[in-house]
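Notes to self after the call with IL:
- keep both proteins in one doc
- input above output, always
- annotate only the second one for now

Protein 1:
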Amino acid sequence: MRLITRADFDGIVCGVLLTAQEHIDRFLFIEPKAMQDHEVEVDSKDIVANLPYHPDVYLWFDHHITNRVSGSFRGKFFLAPSAARVVFDYYPQGSLARYETLVQEADRIDSGDLERADIFEPQGCVLLAFTIDPNSQADEPYWIKLIYLLREQPFALVMEDAEVKDRCEQVLEDFKVYHALLLNNTRQDGNVAITDFRGINFPGKVNRFLVYSLFPETNISVKIFRDYHQDGRIGISVGKNIFNKTSNINVGELLSHYGGGGHQGAGSCRVPVEDAEEVLNKIIKTLKI
């Protein structure tokens, strides 16, 4: 059986739960757009989690509002804080009890239910989550390693693993550079913080929540960046400020009009380079109060 999921903390925790319950021996980590565009062959030996639905899958689990489907399917969908929570609730009560704390952390991280200390001085699961970057495909062996470490080891021992420690230390160093990059490439337009990274090639890990603390008067942020997965496309991500919760925009629904999707509070889309400015201006106009 193969698990197809996304390389973020939620996807990794889905991997922990599903390998504990199903006979999974292969993994494929992709972005939602690849599933939406049918770039991946999927069959009845696949389990898909934290990604859009595919009709040929054996099991499907998700929680993104824009991925809701009508009709019956094997698996589970509901608007949970994380896809890991959906998986956790699918299996018999108590069967995954030893991972309850891990799922709670996935809920907190994926929904952005964080404190300022989590952003400026990340520790534990939050720090570990920052080591997972879906744009770094070369990290796939590390992602798979994390699935098995978190499945088999107490969390304290996971954090003592030599590779995990090195990556956590590197993340903290990367954040110092990212802090400056964010300040130098972000402008405020009313209630919207706009970060343009199209000309930036930063190989380090990023802190997607930092912008909310640096621009506290904004209630929503937009980031523009090169699509690392396909040439000729630009990525646009939108997120509500987790500390200034005054925006009423349904982000996922908005971005679904541009081939993307997500949650009510965060989402992304990929658009051709030649369409990027037009789409970006339309999105920003909608977000502005």
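Protein 2 (the one to annotate):
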Amino acid sequence: MSKIFLKAFSVFILLSLFPGCSYKMGSPVSGGSHLHIRVKNDSVAPLLGAKVDRELRKNILRNGSYVLANGPGDADVFLIVTLTNYKDSTEAYRPGDTLLAAGLNLRISATVELNDVRGASMHQENVRADSSLLRSISQVPDDSMALQALAERLASNISLSLLNQAW
């Protein structure tokens, strides 16, 4: 009797473990797995488009829910990011000199649109990011550090909205 019970129990365990073999982390939003990304820079920050594109690709590759397509013909889903409304403002001034900024706040808005193969819009969302940079008194202001931080923050916000499937 115990052999029959042991065999039945082992078959039950094996059958309950097999469905877990096809589990995949982070399923894509639309059922498509190949994503083509296009970043359009309509802002006044000329380097920001390339930085956001690079950081967004890094984030999507890191989370693994999509495979990046080499060209539009290989993609199931298209992500179009349009950068707009870039603004920079001074947050802090150097002591003794009110003309040179010691701290900057940068802001950017982006319209994120997810399209299917037919070009139909699946969702559109506005995403914002801002970044602050405080420099020491001995340093000359460096905008590239602030733009890189802003690009990383915006790319993180966009990829999180893709991961959270908030479309």
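Annotation: The mean pLDDT is 79. Residues 27-87+108-129+138-163 form a domain with the Double Stranded RNA Binding Domain fold (CATH 3.30.160.150).
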